[in-house]
Amino acid sequence: MDAFRELHRLITGYQVSQAVHVAATLGLSDLLADGPRSVAELADATRTDARSLRRLMRGLVAVGLYVDTGDDRFANTELGDAFRNDAPRSVAGWARFVGRPFHWQAYASLEHSVRTGETGFAAVHGMSLWGYLAEHPDEQNVFDDAMTALSRAVADAVVDAYDFGRFGTVVDVGGGRGLLLSAVLSRYPSVEGVLFDRPDVAAGAHQLLAAAGVAQRCKVIGGSFFEAVPAGGDVYVLKAVIHDWSDAESVEILRTCRRAMSASGRLLLVEQLLDLSPDPVRTALSDLTMLVVAGGQERTTDEYRSLLSASGFDLTRTFATASDVFVIEAAPTQ
Fold first, then answer.
1. Residue-wise pLDDT tens digits, 105-116
2. This prediction's pTM
3. What is the SS3 assignment for 121?
4. Residue 1 pLDDT more than 90?
């Protein structure tokens, strides 16, 4: 290994992140979906400066997203094609989020978080991520798009790994726009669903659920999971929720779920696991994002076991999926 080159690649990784963010924001992969286009055509479609756009395209060619076909024309590579918004597991929504100034500025406070243990986001913006999103609805939409993109990347793997068909009603707590729940309901036509999230977030779920053809079997309810969640479900699913919160806040959320459940109910946490991750780099960096942005953390299996125990649950089984998340099943302590 050439240590200098590898270190240089690590140091300049932020440049790649921003270039890919801009590609997603401009929708370049979508514009190239039907074949090569010239820089002039792309600049006209995106209302950008052609000379600057050419330089961006040169950088994106270097990292493998696009290919220069000659005559100042560019086309998608296989990677670029997968970056289209309509690709099966597109993460373009995530790319649009991570480069937004409010998120980017927070990450610049990583050193502050390491030195103090405080969340960098609050140090920069004077409030939590959730408070900021509530005050900035445009950024809330970007964030919701990002969470939907991440759900799209793992939803099929989760439904493949766990049998939801034995339940009558699935309650998706903090379910965003309902991508995961729609995958469950599409796979199991006899199952009913309840989508629960903050009112402003839950309101955006109707369109996705209708497009999936499951709206008639799914209630959408707004509220706070710190106060109460809908009662009567057979299984309660929290995907990428608990990792956003501190231990104390996580126990509070889990106890709220426990109060809504019967003794025969089940709780499912869909999370990455530090001790079992098939992609340790991604999971470790996600943990840093929790430190800097949300104030939570990624955890080990035993750490989740402890949280669940403190909340009135016993961890019963852990299911690996074909993605980097696990389904952690828990039952009320008897």
1. 999 999 999 999
2. 0.93
3. helix
4. no
| Residue position matching structure tokens 């009913």 | 192
CB within 8 Å of 239: residues ≥ 6 apart: 151, 158, 172, 174, 175, 180, 269, 270, 271, 325
| Pair of tokens at residue 277 | 């991750």
Q: Which residues contact 267 (CB under 8 A, 6 or more apart)?
A: 235, 236, 238, 254, 257, 258, 261, 308, 313, 329, 330, 331
Domains in the chain (CATH in brackets) are: 3-87 (1.10.10.10), 153-332 (3.40.50.150)
Nearest to 291 by CA among 50, 129, 83, 156: 129
Q: What sections of the chain are H helices per DSSP?
A: 3-11, 13-26, 28-31, 39-46, 50-62, 78-82, 92-98, 101-107, 110-116, 120-125, 129-135, 137-161, 179-187, 199-202, 205-211, 247-260, 280-289, 301-310
Position 175 pLDDT exceeds 90: yes
Positions marked catalytic: 243
User: Which amino acid appears at position 35 of this protein?
Assistant: G
- Spell 300-311 as b/e; 16+ CB within 10 A means b: ebebbbebbeeb
DSSP code at position 162: S
